[in-house]
Amino acid sequence: MSSSVPYDPYIPAQGSEAAAPKTQDIQNQIDATVGIMKDNINKVAQRGERLESIQDKADSLAVNAQGFRRGANRVRKQMWWKDMKMRMCIILGIVILLIVIIVPIVVHFT
Amino acid sequence: MFRDRTNLYISYRRTYPHNTGQFNGNSQLDTTNPNNRFDLLGEEEEAHGLIDSSYHDEAAENGDAIEMKPLPPKFADISSEIEFLLAEIEKEVTRLNYLYKKNLLPGFNDTTEDDEKIDQMNFVITSSFQKVYNKIKNIDSIKLQYQDVLRPEDNLICDNLKKNLAAKTQDLSKKFRKLQNNYIKYLKQDDFQAPQKQNVMDEWDDSDAVNIESYSKQAMQQSSALLQEQEQTEGINDQLIQRREKEIYKIAQGVVEISTIFKELETMVIDQGTILDRIDYNLENVVVDLKQSNKELLKGQKHQKRSTKCKLILLLTLVTLTLAVIVLMKPRRTDHYYHDTPEPSKDTTPAEEPAPVEVDEPTTKN
After folding, report:
1. What residues of chain B, 327 to 356, have a C-beta less than 8 Å from chain A?
2. pLDDT tens digit string along B333-348?
3. Same domain assignment for residues B94 and B184
4. Which of B206, B61, B223, B68 is nearest to B146 (CA)?
5. T-SNARE coiled-coil homology domain: from which residue to which, for each copy (chain B) (predicted)?
6. B56, B114, B163, B193: which sits with the fewest CB atoms below 10 Å from its CB?
7. Among A62, A69, A49, which residue's Cα sits nearest to residue B280?
8. Same domain, B262 and B293
């Protein structure tokens, strides 16, 4: 104890001086990380804004795509109807033709 | 907590006058620093717990216990010797202090003689300290010698004596060390020319200190007077500790800040993840819709193509129909008016008339 008494004002002072830079170092590192993290948060916030705009666009795109699909469906149906009409017309024309051809013949021979 | 016991003890001491002849030193010590003593008692009680029972024994035996006749007079001798040595040391220390002060004063005189003197005195003082410690150790050996004769109370007195002496020497050595230390500090501040000498001095101190320290550790365990010193040194340490605590607190704050930032980031990223999921879902829907609409449009295109083909077929059928109608209509007329010869000629002529009309029709239709 007697030896540690005179060294008491000494060694802890040294220790504190040696420890101060360490803590200072850690403090600095923490400050640096805090700065970086704040930067990161800003970046993430920007990313979030961009993502939201992208999301809006994607939403509208989805709606448009649905509308387009419906439109395509309608077009297809219209085309199908047209096709059907044409077919009906053809069939009708052929039938009429056959009637026109067959009926006079039948009439003629009877 | 301990107050009651100590008061009890004091009352015992007062009520039972000691045979003062042998224990002068002890009683002196008791009267000189009573506070110290009480602290000792508290410590002892805490440490051993035997004192409590012994005191109770005292209370029970009532008087027999405090006689302490067989206590050897060597205790007194040793204590007086030690006191003498301590007084010498104190003188030396004061002289050394004077020398230090003289040496520290700035001047152009050659101080090597003084330095030598200082070194010598240092040596003397440390050696006398060593002596004192040896003497204190002797008390232990004496105690061992008379172990059979000694009662627990005598042991107690022995311990107290030792502790008190140790405390005194501690105080002195502390003073001495402080002096030395300050001197070295001053030297280091003022003088950069003789660092070697100081180093030598430091080493010497250290090597000497190891011996003293090893003993003083024992003394510390035994003597609770050191508690005070510890408190004093802890006063210095406390500042340090507080400062460190502050620093650590700051660091902890920083870490907490970082952790909160990370949490914030986490929540933000999670939010954005949900947004991303929605975007993904929307885009997948878009893909599915587009694929289906593409299929339908292809079908519609097929239908459209087919419809053009159908239009052509329709046209041709219409043409054939009209032609057939014309062919069928003609013979009736010919049946009524002509029989054989003019039929083909008349067939062609009326057929030619509507023909351009029908030829015109497809052109317009197309």
Report:
1. 328
2. 555 554 554 444 444 4
3. yes
4. B68
5. 238-300
6. B193
7. A62
8. yes
